Amino acid sequence: MDTIASLFSFITTPVSWVIVQFHSVYGKIFGPDTGWAWGLSIVSLVILIRICLIPLFVKQIKATRAMQTLQPEMKKIQERYKNDKQRQSEEMMKLYKESGTNPLSSCLPILAQSPFFFALYHVLNGIATGSTIGVINESLLASARKAHIFGAPLAAKFTDGQAKVEALGATLTDVRVVTAIMIVMMSGSQFYTQRQLMTKNVDTTVKTPFMQQQKMLMYVFPVMFAVFGINFPVGVLVYWLTTNVWTMGQQMYVIRNNPTPGSKAQAAYLERLQKHVTHHEKTRSRGEKAIVKAIVAKGRDRNEFERKFVNSLTKVGLVAQADGTVVKGQAEATVEAEDGTTTTTGGAPKRQQPKRQSKSQRQSGTAAGGAKAADEPEPKTSLTKSDEPQDAKPAAKPAGGGNKPGTGTRSKAQSGQRKGPQRPKSPSKK
Questions:
Q1: What distance in Å separates the CA atoms of residue 428 and residue 97, rounded to the nearest whole number?
Q2: Which of 77, 122, 390, 413 could cross-link to 382 by cystine, CB 3.0-4.6 Å?
Q3: Number of other residues whose CB lies within 10 A of the CB of residue 391
């Protein structure tokens, strides 16, 4: 660890300068030789570094989500070129280039934070060995060696012996208890952060090897922190515990307000958003408009939770627009004027389909509306009955089987026969 820390010795001067500046502020409040002054200086250093790393953290989120969406395509490439590793690598790089994704982007915050971590370790190790480093002179070195956090010196380690701990003005029991508690808290916060990411902010509709890797890291990272933690000074444990707590809170905020599509966190977020939009009948913040805009743009590609959100708005008479706003639907936006007429203000009016006409209406040339003038007589057709009285009896048929004209019977056209002279039936043979 000392060899690795020495590689980042070029940054120890800026780190030590920042710590001294914070110490000068907290020393006036708690006293220059107290553990509160030096401990809060380290905590403030962490907060300052993490604020500067927020843009990288945003890139990490985008890169992680992009990698999740590419997992099905990556799996296809691996299966297609499983016997050709070189072609597989080329296709992977091509896929990254086309999608604009960089696998290393998900590791940017850790990589950017590593120099500061090792520089702080180098500074605290110098305090433990009694050597000045960076801007920490003899007086500041003596003040830091007197500082204790719950009875444990800043430069003490879990693996230090009795003689070294007594030289720092502490007991071995205090050092072991404090460092053990801090190591457990550091590993526990790391495990909770990773578990929160896996259980709440992962697309449950896609099962990929990437999820298995993340699940494995959820158990590996806490063990690594516990193993390395016994060799960290108390000041470094304060630094790492603070950065883990910051990461956990930052991730909770992102999961709550910008969850991964298809995850349980998105279902909870859309449920809260639906209640909020239904109550206010609009989207107020820029983030809400961005979420609604993205859902509308997906169209048929919406997942289960997004379809449920859109349907919930429709049931209460609200319609999500392409720009992310929400307006009243067709049924809710009908306004009645003073003269009794109604006008529609929400959305375009529906196209009216013409009514289907009957056969008799089409033959008589009735208008599309189907209404006739009241004084217009109804024309007679071959399908209507005669105006003769219903009680007229039909004449008897002659023996020859022919019909006499002028009777009150129905016309031949009405009985289904053609008009005009009919061919007489041939007499039946006896």
A1: 95
A2: 413
A3: 6
The 8-class DSSP code of residue 399 comes to T
Q: SS3 letters for 309-351? A: HHHHHHHCCEEECCCCCEEECCCCCEEECCCCCEEECCCCCCC
Segment 38-51, tens digit of pLDDT: 999 999 998 998 89
Burial of residue 95, with CB atoms counted within 10 A of its CB: 0-12 exposed, 13-18 middle, 19 or more buried: middle
Cβ–Cβ < 8 Å for 95, 77: yes
Is the distance from CB of 2 to CB of 109 less than 8 angstroms? Answer: no
d(CA 235, CA 153): 8
pTM beyond 0.85: the answer is no
Residues 32, 140: Cα–Cα separation, whole Å: 9
233 contacts 125 by C-beta, under 8 angstroms: yes
Separation between Cα atoms, residue 60 and residue 327, nearest integer Å:
35
**Structure tokens given for 178:** 């404090």
pLDDT digits (tens, 9 = 90+) for 19-34: 999 999 999 999 888 8
d(CA 78, CA 92): 9
Distances (CA, A) of 146 to 48, 136, 325: 25, 14, 60
Q: What is the DSSP letter of 136?
A: B
Closest alpha carbon to 198 in 251, 130, 246, 141: 251
Q: In whole angstroms, give the CA distance from residue 34 to residue 28.
A: 11
In the DSSP assignment, the letter for residue 34 is S
- Residue 44 CA to residue 47 CA, distance in Å, equals 5
Residue with tokens 């990288």: 56
Distance (Å, whole) CA 129 – CA 149:
18
Plot region of 211 (φ>0 → left; ψ -120 to 50 → alpha; else → beta): alpha
